[in-house]
Amino acid sequence: MSKILIVEDEPQIARFVELELIHEGNSVEKAEDGRTGLDMALATDYDLILLDVMLPGLNGLEVLRRIRSHKETPVILLTARDAVMDKVSGLDAGADDYITKPFAIEELLARIRVALKRHGAASFSTRQITVGTVMIDLDRHEVQVGDQPVELTNYEFELLRILMENKNIVLDRDHLINEVWGYDFDGETNAVDVYIRHLRTKIDDRFGIKLIQTVRGVGYAIKEDCL
Ligand code: CA
C-alpha cells in the first residue's frame, strides 16, 4: 500500500483519482491549494505526490521547488494540455514525470506505478486479488496468506489464479483444465483434483482455513463467505 497526496483544486478530478487509487489499495490525502499541499508534503512522508500545476495560492511549480529543497518524494505533475513550458520547467524543477489533462486514468496509474517502482516504494499493484486473508499478486507472481508468503509451482499458481479471479463462481474440471493446461491437454481430468490437493496442503492445511470448496458433482469454487 502506498500513501499518496493529491494536490488539485478541481474537486471532481481529485475525487475521481482518489477513488481509483483507493480502489487499487492505496491511502490518499488531498489538498485543494498549493500552500496546503506544500505544508502537507513537508509534514508527511508520502510515497508519491500528484501535483497540479495551475493551483490557487502557490502554483504547482513553486510547490515542487520548495518540496525539492527539503525532500525527494516522487512527484508527478498534472499539466494543462499543450503547456510545453510547464513540462520543461516541471522537469527542471525536479518532477519525476508529468501527465497532461485530460488524461486516461489507466495511463496515470501506469505512470504512478513506474514512479513508485523507481523509488522502491512498497508494493503497488493493480493486479491483486484478495479473498479473506489470501492475496494473490498477478504481477509479482506471489501468494500470501496474512503476511506469510506461500510458494507455489506454476500450475498451482495458475489454478489458484483462475479460482480467485472467478471467486464465488463454481468452475467445473473441464473449464479449469482448459484455463490452466490449455485445450490440447491430453492427461486425465483428475489432474485438477491432484493440484487442488496440493493447494489445500499448502494453504488450507497450513493456515487452518477452508479456501477451496468442493461442489460435489460440479467442480470447485473459492467463496468469500466461507472464509
Ligand atoms: Ca488546477
Q: Helix segment count? A: 8
**Outline, from the CA principal axes?**
elongated
Number of domains: 2
How far is the N terminus from the C terminus?
A: 23 Å
CATH topological fold name of the largest domain: Rossmann fold
Rg over CA atoms, rounded to whole Å, is 23 Å
Structural class of the helix and strand makeup? alpha/beta
Structure description:
By secondary structure, this protein is α/β, with parallel strands linked by helices. The protein folds into 2 domains: 3-118, Response regulator (Rossmann fold); 128-226, Orthogonal Bundle (Arc Repressor Mutant, subunit A), CATH 1.10.10. Helix content is 41%, strand content 22%. The chain contains 8 helices and 12 strands. The chain has helices at residues 11-23, 34-43, 60-68, 84-92, 105-118, 154-165, 173-181, 190-207; strands spanning 3-7, 27-31, 48-52, 75-79, 97-100, 128-131, 134-137, 142-145, 148-150, 171-172, 212-215, 219-222. Strands 2-1-3-4-5 form a 5-stranded parallel beta sheet, sandwiched between helices. Strands 6-7-8-9 form a 4-stranded antiparallel beta sheet, with helices on one face. Strands 10-12-11 form a 3-stranded antiparallel beta sheet. Helix 2 packs parallel to helix 3, helix 6 (154-165) packs across helix 7 and helix 6 (154-165) packs across helix 8 (190-207). The mean pLDDT is 89. Residues 9-10, 52, 54-55 line the site of calcium ion.
